[in-house]
Structure formats: structure tokens, C-alpha cells
């Protein structure tokens, strides 16, 4: 029952966050901000703790477990927020960034970085914020972002400062606020930023994120790009769509590659179509895939996942539902690259390692080198749920519930709404829960 419930939660979560969008549009360009960049401030040196067991080079291993000592005191407790997807990004160095709650410590939650058998604190509850106040919580949906240099971006709430919320970048020079609630909204007359979704981060320390902007009595979505110096508006809800009619509607969470290309889903209001997946930034704003387009195997694309991924070749990976009027839809993982649309995995088709795909996790991920990763429920396989990773045309099973670990023990039950985070060369992470005596929650990594 527990195993069956695990994949049912995964499939239900995917359906809850799927968005229905289609069309082609061109919007008026955003206006760069004239706000000066905030200087970085040096933070207190990070504290590190050693792991409980020696890692297995190249194998699937736990980079952190519940009950293990945390930097600054206390012990790690949970690596998820109830009902929210969990993602722990990994880079080519094998560094893994993750969110965790901590027991018996003043910093009861935080963002941490695991590397080469050690764990360092990136930022924690109660840490001072440059400009005033302290970190109070890591947003309603903590999703840290990690780049090749080991820098981490995240959204967090603030207590005792001039702003209640912000987007931050943590580097070896300290914690840097990139945007704060209460700031003027660049490119939106009389607009004030009042909230943020988790940011996307590339290896150049550039970011893209969706923000909520208050303008008069109304609130609107806006998409912003941080170029390392200032914030620029990419587009905003209500922008006129010149080539197709209507206006921009809701804006989904963006992905960003190292060339500065931003991929994002967006809706269209009162136009001839509903929305789709678009690119902007260093590429001309255009539609790549729309609801109503046909998948290579023939069925229509009905809905998209809440989040999408983009690699350095501008290939975009996303979750979708496929179907026709009057037929039951099938979940799928799709990819769009310069050669067109392809299918990575489709419900009821054969899965690597045996069995058939029965559903997918909240969203897929992609590494800069094009490797992809996703979680899938499996029918008629050795395990009911597994994580897959590798080239988009040949992913392999990277972790399966109940599988033996190289260092001993077994892979636990996947955290509800777990996301497999792709890293270069097929590296991947996944969050698990202990369900047998002696087992504990953990973040597993197939790392160098």
C-alpha cells in the first residue's frame, strides 16, 4: 500500500501543477532598471561537518542523512516541505545544494552545500541580511539553485528588515540581495515588487525569476532577468501581443542557460490561442511549443508541467499530457531542440530496466551538457518508482526504491513529489524517506 500510494502522490502532484497554454506572440521589450547593484558583503566563514560514512566513488550514495550533525550545531531532520516538490541540484564538481530543517539548533532551517564528504552552511534561519534584518524562512517552496562555481541562489523571507522577502545569491564573498520586496519594479510604471518565485541561476551568476508586482490596486506577474549588475524586465502580465492579439496572462517559472537564453511558459488572454513555452533573453522572443501541437507519435499536447528545463544547446525538456478529445490523456516527458520535438518517455511505454512507465514526477530537469533526469512510477517492474537520468535519447535507471546501495543498505521510499535533479555526465540526486527500522530520510546522489 505504501509503495502504491507513492506513485499515486507523484501522479496527483503532476496533475495539480500542470498548466494549459498555447500560441505565438511578440511583446514590447522591457526597460532595463537604473537601480544600482547592491554590493556583496562578506559572510561569517562556513562551518563544515564530516559525513557518517565514506562515499563510494561514482556510485549511488547518501550525501546527507537525517540525524547527522549539521553545521553550527543540531542535527538534520527533514529535507522537504510537506506537499512541496523536493529538488537538490548537483554540479560537475559533485557539489549538492539542499534545503533542510535542523533539530536542536538556533538555525532551525537552512540551505546547505555538500561536497567531497563535507557539508557547509550556505544560509540559515537567523543569519544577518546585508542592509538589515535576518533570514526568517526559505519561502513557501524552498528550491535552491546551484551553478558550476558552487554559488547558490534562493528566495527567502526576512524578519526585522526594511523588506519582508528577497532573492539572494550566496558566493564565497557572502550573501548578496539581488531583489527585495518593496523595491520599485523595473520597467513597470508605479509598480512595486511584492513577492517572488524561486529563481533560475546560470554559471555566470545571472538569474531569471518570476515576481509578483503590485500596481495600484492590482497585482500582476512579471518576468525579470539579473545580468550581474542590474535587473531587467523581460515581459509582464498585460503586455500587448503585437503579432497575434490579446495580452500576456500568467507567467510560469523560467529556466536559464549559460548563454542567457530564458525559457518559460506563459498564457495569453483574449487572443486566438491560450499559451505555450517560449524563449527570450539573448534569443528573440518566440513560441517553441504550444498546447494543441502534435507530439511525434501523433497525440495532441494538452498541458505542460509547472517548471521546465533548458540546456546550453537551447534544448528544452518539460512534462506534458498527451491525448485527444474523448480519450484518456497520457503523461509524457518531451524535449524540444533545434531539430524539433521529441519524446523522452511516455506513459504506458517500456521503461529502461524493465516495466512500463505509469506516470511522472512534478517536472523533469536538465544539465548544461544536455543530460536529463526525471522520476517515474513503473508498472510491472522490479520497483514501483524510480529515477532516470542520462542522454535524452537514452536515459537509464539511476535509482529505484528498494535497490541495494553500494555502501550497504537500500534506497528508501522516495519523498512525496520528489524531483530527480540532473547534473553533467549523468549525475543525479533524489530525496528519500526511511520506512524500515534504522532507515532515515536522505538525499542520494550518483556523483563523481
Defining key terms:
448 residues, 1 helix, 4% helix, globular
Describe the structure.
The longest helix has 16 residues, at 2-17. The relative contact order is 0.16. This protein has a domain at 1-20 and 294-448. It is globular and about 60 Å long. The strands form seven sheets. Strands 1-6-5-4-3 form a five-stranded antiparallel sheet, with no helix packed on it. It has 448 residues and is mostly beta strands. The chain is built from one helix and 35 strands. Residues 1-57 have low confidence and may be disordered.
Strand order in the largest sheet: 1-6-5-4-3
- The SS-based structural class is mainly beta
Number of strands: 35
Give the biggest beta sheet.
5 strands, antiparallel
List strands and helices in order, with pairings.
Blueprint: H1 2-17, E1 48-49, E2 60-65, E3 75-76, E4 96-103, E5 109-115, E6 118-124, E7 134-137, E8 145-146, E9 152-159, E10 165-171, E11 174-180, E12 191-196, E13 200-201, E14 207-215, E15 218-226, E16 231-236, E17 247-251, E18 255-256, E19 261-269, E20 275-281, E21 286-290, E22 300-304, E23 309-310, E24 316-323, E25 330-337, E26 340-346, E27 356-360, E28 365-366, E29 372-379, E30 385-390, E31 396-400, E32 413-414, E33 421-422, E34 428-433, E35 442-446
Antiparallel strand pairs: 1-6, 2-35, 3-4, 4-5, 5-6, 7-9, 8-9, 9-10, 10-11, 12-14, 13-14, 14-15, 15-16, 17-19, 18-19, 19-20, 20-21, 22-24, 23-24, 24-25, 25-26, 27-29, 28-29, 29-30, 30-31, 32-34, 33-34, 34-35
